[in-house]
Amino acid sequence: MEHEDFQAKIDRLNEIVAASRKIVFFGGAGVSTESGIPDFRSVDGLYHQQYDYPPETILSHTFYMHNREEFYRFYRAKMLCTTAKPNAAHKKLAELEAAGKLTAVVTQNIDGLHQAAGSKVVLELHGSVLRNYCEGCNTFYDIDYILKTEGVPKCEKCGKPIKPDVVLYEEGLDQKTISDAVRYISEADTLIIGGTSLAVYPAAGLIDYFRGQNLVVVNMAPTSRDQYADLVIPGKIGEVFDQIKV
Ligand code: NAD
User: Fold this and answer.
1) What is the enclosing helix (H) or strand (E) of 115?
2) How far away, in angstroms, is 175 Cα from ligand 1 center?
3) DSSP E strand stretches across the chain
4) At 101, is the pLDDT very low, low, confident or very high (cuts 50, 70, 90)?
5) What local confidence, expressed as pLDDT, does residue 77 receive?
6) 32 near 87, Cβ under 8 Å?
């Protein structure tokens, strides 16, 4: 994109943000790539790396139930990234919320970086690697416990396996999280979609509840919603959001 085209889009984004009172952000793995966490579908994403099984197989409920050892090998190596820090996109979203312009972040991410940046209303559609629960007695375990154990982590109280509070393929989403997301999205005046391929359902279907004035897409690759958007910025979300004036 020519620099002038890009600047014109940033200016338009700033006009929209200035005129909005109830922005909702809907995002995915692309929001955290600039923090060093790989997404799934970019060229250097996890789907293009070689494993014994495809990631969507390893990250499925069936695989987890039958191959917890292998699941945890992949999960510890590829899904846990404790050194990652919020980038400019996470930080700007927290600023917009603090300024009373943004009502919620609806995220497919499981990395906790929005909360680390200071966002308060974060609807985690797919859960979080920061929370883990015993399958037997439901005792809570933090990420450090998962990192310091080997193989399948076991509950210190009852000895049963510990499962991450992450929605695996074939598993349902939390109903309260979905209904909250629907409410925020349907009441928004502006919906900004960013860093997501919109390929994972039912999460991606939630954006259909948007009824507001401005639909904005900030994503490196084209998405199925670009044709309906008022503004499409094909760039890096951290670089784009860094230029939003709060
Ligand atoms: P995806 O990998 O399917 O798509 C990522 C999209 O983001 C792509 O379209 C890519 O072009 C775009 N992108 C990548 N870097 C970007 C950047 N810097 N700026 C703008 N756009 C960028 O991710 P998805 O749509 O979120 O779906 C994958 C699933 O994987 C989700 O359900 C999510 O739970 C999970 N996931 C989460 C994390 C995380 O928590 N950080 C990481 C990997 C996967």
Assistant:
1) helix 113-117
2) 23
3) 23-27, 102-107, 122-124, 127-134, 140-141, 162-166, 190-194, 214-218, 231-233
4) very high
5) 86
6) yes
225-244 pLDDT tens trace:
999 999 999 999 999 999 99
Altogether, the residues listed in the chain come to a count of 246
Q: Which of 49-58, 86-95, 120-129 has the lowest mean pLDDT?
A: 49-58
| Strand pairing category for 214-218 and 190-194 | parallel
How many Å apart are CA 241 and CA 86, to the nearest integer?
Answer: 13
The DSSP-derived string for 69-97 is HHHHHHIIIII--TT----HHHHHHHHHH
**Residue 86 near residue 116, CB atoms below 8 Å:** yes
For 200, residues 6+ apart whose C-beta sits below 8 A from its C-beta are 28, 108
CA 200-205-209 angle, to 5 degrees, is 155
The single-letter DSSP state of residue 212 is S
Q: Give CA torsion, residues 221, 226, 231, 237, to 10 deg.
A: -30
126 is catalytic: yes
Question: Is residue 170 helix, strand or coil?
Answer: coil
User: Mean pLDDT over residues 98-103, rounded?
Assistant: 98
Residue 50, both tokens: 């070689």
Q: 199: CA distance to ligand 1 center in Å?
A: 10
Q: How far apart are CA 14 and CA 93, in angstroms?
A: 14
What CA–CA distance (Å, rounded) separates 72 from 151? 6
Tell me the best of 32, 39, 170 to mutate to test the pocket of ligand 1, counting ligand atoms within 8 Å of each CB and taking the most. 39
